[in-house]
Each structure stands twice: as C-alpha cells, then as structure tokens.
Records
---
Amino acid sequence: MKKVLLLFAVCIGMCVAVNAQLGDLTKKATQAAAGAKFDINNIAKGVMGKLVPGLNLVGDQAPKVNEEVINFLKKKANILSLKAGNPAEYTKQQTDLFNNLKTKLGSILKPDQLKKFLALRPAASDKSNPLTHLFN
C-alpha cells in the first residue's frame, strides 16, 4: 500500500512539473503569436502602399511620412495589450496617438493631402485594409 501511495505521489508531482513547464510554453507561444500579428515593418509597407498613390506623395514626403507611420506603429504596439484588458484606456491612448500623427503629418503634407488622408479612413475595422492600423 505504501508503494502505491508513493507511486501516486510521484505521478502527481510529475504532472504538476510538466504542467508548469507547459504553462510557460503556452504563454510564450501566445505572446509570440500576438507579436507576429502586429509586424510594424509589414504594416508600414502596406500603409505606405495605400498612402503614396492615394495622397500623390512627391519628393521627400514619402520617407518623412513613412518615418512618422513607423513611429506611430511602434507607440501603438506598446498599448495593444490594453485593447482587451482596458478598452476605454486603449481608445483614449489610440486617439491621442492618432491626433499626434495627424499633427506631424500636417507639417509634411499639403492641406489637400491631409484632407485626402483623413478621407482614406476605412469605414469599419476592415482587417484587409492596412490603414485600419492607423485609425483604429
């Protein structure tokens, strides 16, 4: 009987140890998947693919706009965790970030280009439109 209890205790101990290790792996895999969904460079390329022709960017406007878009996306990556846990705070910070981006783009773009930029806002959260990452 003692051997059975000892064997049972060892089995439970092994199960706990294995689950503890798997819990860490699961958490890391989830974090990696979330990071992969928000690839700043790929999103920036997609955004610029829409903005360059949509705004008729000329001269040094495209690199300057690209730099501001990348800076915006880096800052947005820092607040994405709030989207699920604290949506009100996420919305507030996203709005602040977007207004800051709009101000910076206002010094790079001509007034009619800025107006076109604002008109490019996707009607809804269209995940196929890279501009969604700027506006939502």
Note: The chain has two domains: 1-37, 39-135.
---
Amino acid sequence: MEVILKFLWLAGCYGVGIGVAVVVHELGHAFASLLVTRQRIELQIGKRASDAKGWRVGRLQVFWSPRGFHLGATRYDRTAVSRVRQMAVAAAGPLASFVFFAFFAVLMSRSLLGGWQWISFLGLSVANFRILIVALWPVAYRPHGPEGEVWLSDGLDFWRLWRGR
C-alpha cells in the first residue's frame, strides 16, 4: 500500500511541479526582458481565455489561467531590441529551468533514497527537467490549435537569432 501512496505522491508532485516549472521558466524570460528593455512585458501562464486573471506589477503585466497551465509565454516588442538582447531573453527561461532542476536534484541527492522528501524532490526535479528539454528542443508549434499563433521553442528562437534570421 505504501508503494501505491508513494507513486501517487510522485505523480502529484510532478503535476504541481509542471505548473511551478512553467512559472519559474517564464519568470526567467520576464526578468531578463525587464532588465534589457524599457518596455511593458506581458507574462502569460495558461491559455489566454476570458477567465484569465490579470494583474500588473510595474512594467510587468501577468495573466494566469488554470486552463493549459503547462503553457507559458513572455511577450515584448522584439523589433525595438537588438538580437543580442533578444538572445539573452530567450536563454533566460531555460537557464531558470536548469537552476531549479539542479536545485531540486541536489536536494534529492541529500535525502533518504525512497523517502517522502526524496520522492517530492524527484517529482519537482523531473518537472523542471521536462520544461528545460521542451524549451531547448528546436521546434515551432501552435499550442492553441491549427489556427492559433505560432510559438517557437527557446532553442529554435535562440538558434534563429544566432544565425541572424
């Protein structure tokens, strides 16, 4: 019975961890864009919908919706920013994901193997690693269906900026 409970706990930590990892990842992009621009920045967590909650903190406008909590985007006027600054913003999300993955992995390594803390940190580290890998994988996709906006992964965005396209 304990094995089943631990598996359910792992699944729960992973599920919550995905939401937290998306927020951490997008905050990485948002903080970098706040540093390298003087613009208003829009941070979106979840699908943009009529039920999305929004609030403003200085130049940062945040929208949050529980629908599609595994999706996130940070927007700013890229035409007003140099390629190097755009590359810094593109790299900041994966960097934040990597830092949190490493943090939870270290905590996991210092916990009792198979214990409740270890399982918690495993779920959180795997969630951050998943967000990191998905962000680095060079793909373009439409998270809101075939008619929706095209999103570039951070890896593809960085590569195109590096290549000058």
Note: The longest strand covers residues 41-45.
